[in-house]
Amino acid sequence: MAFEVQRDSWKTQLRLTLPNLGDVEIGIALAGNRVQLDIKASDRTSTAVLRGSGNNLNRALQAAGLDLQGMRVVQREPA
Questions:
Q1: What are the residues whose beta carbons fall under 8 Å from the beta carbon of 60, sequence distance 6 or more?
Q2: 40, 17, 16, 14: which is closest to 28 by C-alpha?
Q3: What pTM was estimated for this model as a whole?
Q4: Nearest to 48 by CA among 29, 70, 69, 20
Q5: Please, are residues 11 and 30 in contact by the beta-carbon 8 Å criterion?
């Protein structure tokens, strides 16, 4: 996990291995109440699941007082 804090903003990157999604890399940028996500999944199925969850995530963030400015979900390039 890496993070960077600047005045009124925050960025971090997470690498997770999840039981149903496999390896996922998530870049999170927060500025005030605005959130941007950059998500890289390990395969097509996980990419589709994560893209399909965008509306639910947006509603959860709104309920927490956050505004999802953008969410990019792509399949990670093979090493």
A1: none
A2: 14
A3: 0.83
A4: 20
A5: yes
For the record, the structure tokens of 45 come out as: 């199925």
CA distance 67 to 35: 6
Q: Which two tokens stand for residue 8?
A: 């009124």
Q: What is the pLDDT of residue 77?
A: 81
Name the E strands within 1-79: 2-6, 9-18, 22-31, 34-41, 67-75
Rg, C-alpha atoms of the chain: 13
Question: Residues in the chain, how many?
Answer: 79
pLDDT in tens, 9-56: 889 999 999 999 999 999 999 999 999 999 999 999 999 999 999 999
